[in-house]
Amino acid sequence: MTDLDEYGRQAKAWLDDNAVDLPREPDLATARAFFARLYDAGYSGITWPSEYGGQGLSAAEERAFQQAARDVVLPVGVFGIGLGMCGPTLISIGTEEQKRRYVRPLLRGEEIWCQMFSEPGAGSDVASLQTRAVLDGDAWVVNGQKVWTSVARQADYGLLIARTNPDAVKHKGITMFIIDMHDPGVTVRPLRDMTGESHFNEIFFDDVRVAPDQVVGTVNEGWSAAVTTLLHERVSIGMGAARTERPASFEALSKAARDRDILTDPAVRDQLVDLYLQERAFDLFNARLTQEVKAGIFPGARGSIAKLLLADLTLSSADIASEILGPETTAYSGEGKIARALSWGPGMALGGGTNEIMRNIIGDRVLGLPREPQVDREIPFRDLKVGTQTREESK
């Protein structure tokens, strides 16, 4: 049995020697080197199965490490999607060969992963996707486009869902594949967002050949595989945000109000109290999810609650910041961190599923309310007019 106190002391000592002086946004080579050291020290994939490259320890060791790292901002960055979404999907439904091939390099930071679901005509309604994969001899041939993909420019591999049987209904006939992002048929183009940066990318697939052993899950049953990834994504977004810096937090905005001598204004105080309550609700809910995950209880659809709470909190903090800072809210000098965070805010109500989709999921799968009517659920995809698809194009 592990001595948890000693485990925590060793983790703290290792972090003090290796992580405290890391830049907040290290270059890719520095981040890769750090994750390799983290893995070799036994602190990456602590609860992941040891037979696939994890440490095979318990939730208690994971909690001890998180406690040791509570004051350290680890450079997860480009590794976050692989660690929070793709890796867990492979562990859940990947083949034995896929787990043995991909999990260890992912945990060491040797290979970066992205997730490719959304399309120009299939955002919130992901099942309307039109990227096609056609079996041609000994390989699947992929053609189409994806969009809003994070870290695609740095990624080595990605999880893609494509339509493999247009004669099936919309939520069937979809298959998940592992894609080599360095394939010559894969073209990645950055998309600049409101922050002035390029967090997202669009991706084009031109006759990309994918071997059958790169199918994740079952052919034509990729929607259930995608749901597995999306559940991990929403939990990862919500729980990951609970551990990151918040430039427009209650603490930061209270200080800004104090510096401007408006903290005694009753209206400002009311707004700050509301923000504090939202932050506490979000943090406490995430603490509960974290405890459950560490205990081996996957929160499932309740991860959508964390995602919705985060989106609402982000938008509320933007409104309050604009009241306190006024024109300074839009300045990238001085309070530049807040300006950047507020520009990013609307994306939180879209990425990983819109707020409206989150509320539908919570109502349907958490509260047990009647489902929203879906008139296209039992119609073959070939006969639908969805997204950018026309009837002629679908034939």
UniProtKB/TrEMBL annotation:
InterPro entries: Acyl-CoA_Oxase/DH_mid-dom (IPR006091), Acyl-CoA_Oxase/DH_mid-dom_sf (IPR046373), AcylCo_DH-like_C (IPR036250), AcylCo_DH/oxidase_C (IPR009075), AcylCoA_DH/ox_N (IPR013786), AcylCoA_DH/ox_N_sf (IPR037069), AcylCoA_DH/oxidase_NM_dom_sf (IPR009100), Mycobact_Acyl-CoA_DH (IPR052161). Residues 220-367 form the Acyl-CoA dehydrogenase/oxidase C-terminal domain. The keyword Ribonucleoprotein does not apply. Keywords: FAD, Flavoprotein, Oxidoreductase. Pfam families: Acyl-CoA_dh_1, Acyl-CoA_dh_M, Acyl-CoA_dh_N. One of its GO terms (cellular component) is plasma membrane. GO terms for molecular function: flavin adenine dinucleotide binding; oxidoreductase activity, acting on the CH-CH group of donors. Residues 114-208 form the Acyl-CoA oxidase/dehydrogenase middle domain. Residues 18-110 form the Acyl-CoA dehydrogenase/oxidase N-terminal domain. Its cofactor is FAD. Belongs to the acyl-CoA dehydrogenase family. This is Acyl-CoA dehydrogenase family protein. It comes from Actinomadura barringtoniae.
